[in-house]
């Protein structure tokens, strides 16, 4: 009996709470308001205004705290949008220069720009891949992205098969991930390097070669 | 007085020592460290911790002077004019005189305009004096350090029942998850999720793991051994946003207040321990 009274009183007390929380959801802030506050704190130099234009994929990704929280429909939408955003080098997919790729993997300077005493030029290139990935054995790296040590070897690329259609297809897959990670992993942490123009198709071929080529230190 | 002199000399010695550790060639602060430099730095950091030295404390001494020099004793940080004990713990809050929610640094900026006769541009220049530098002793950083240290031992208690504060909290939360810029980052790219992750050698705190946001904000301003100078909260935002490749961050903006409101409120209940010390 006492329990029943308790439950009843809890229910009665709970009703207005539910009503209040519903009302609060309606009052939540509007998108324009969020963007206005965000822009208020950033340099208004018109040369960089393009950096603040959200594209459709960014808008979708901003709605969810993680990919696990995304509905399948939204995941599909981002993949569809981004698959269209991949361009290939003039001569199609080919094995590039892994030495050049290594330089780009190492550099942390790509795309940085700040006016307070730093000398970063917007033209500086690089993917800063070590920030998030472990790549060469013995070189410290981050753990935000998957480990890429021995990537080509693990992916089954050998001197014999690297120039076969299957070998080139594997190179193309890795190219796609670097060019536009969201075409395969929507809303992941990895920037869409090629789509934003931070790296050219040739740069990306060189990075993919560095990761996959049997002669590259990554696969030693 | 004697004790103070000893403290000052100890701090200065370690400041010089820290400046010497590595960095002959590394001028810009975005240089990645070599493993040897990294190890030396960690050793230096651990030595300072073991000896109970935090060179950041020297800024508080300087800040005490600057606080008076710029008439900040007239400034109300939420507890009445000039009262700074525990002030940081209840910020950000709504200030009727400015008709705005403000965090500590935004409030200092506002008061510098009201009581020290600075223009908004002068205030921003003052706040950014040490940005991108090493071994820089700026008066602004000193003021922030002095006021923040007066809240040591208090627990962060942002009043989310105030609708204005709550609104800033909601905006800050939305900004935290906004994907933007040429590298598609948001704050959550690095600082969210249950899985523990590292960027190079640095372990990242996550807003989703209980207590970590509080631990991150409760130690600001934080003395950085690699720069031999403290870093204020707004400078920290600027550094993050620079790494996110967004346009340059402006201190004392609503963006800063929204982020502070979200982060400090998430850290509610955490004891303030200033200055923090880090590599």
Note down, in words, how this protein is organized.
The complex is a heterodimer of chains A (220) and B (279). Chain A has 220 residues and is mostly helical. In chain A, 43% of the residues lie in helices and 0% in strands. In chain A, helix 5 (98-106) packs across helix 8 (201-212) and helix 7 (165-179) packs across helix 8 (201-212). The longest helix of chain A is centred in the first third of the chain and has 26 residues, at 2-27. Chain B has 279 residues and is mostly helical. Residues 1-9 and 11-28 of chain B have low confidence and may be disordered. In chain B, strand 1 (93-95) and strand 2 form a beta hairpin. The chains are: A mainly alpha (220), B mainly alpha (279). At the A-B interface, helix 2 and helix 3 of A face helix 7, helix 8, strand 3, helix 10 and helix 11 of B.
- Helix- and strand-based class of chain B? mainly alpha
Q: What is the chains' assembly state?
A: heterodimer
Q: Total number of helical segments of chain A? A: 8
Rg of Cα set of chain A = 24 Å
How would you describe this structure in keywords?
heterodimer; A: mainly alpha; B: mainly alpha; 7 strands
Task: Offer a concise description of the structure.
With 220 residues, chain A is an all-alpha fold. Chain A has 8 helices and no strands.
Topology:
The complex is a heterodimer of chains A (220) and B (279).
Chain A: H1 2-27, H2 31-40, H3 56-62, H4 72-83, H5 98-106, H6 151-154, H7 165-179, H8 201-212
Helix pairs in contact in A: 3-4, 5-8, 7-8
Chain B: H1 2-20, H2 35-50, H3 57-69, E1 93-95, E2 100-102, H4 104-115, H5 120-127, H6 139-149, H7 163-176, H8 187-190, E3 198-199, E4 202-203, H9 212-217, E5 222-224, E6 229-231, H10 233-243, H11 254-266, E7 276-278
Parallel strand pairs in B: 5-7
Antiparallel strand pairs in B: 1-2, 3-4, 5-6
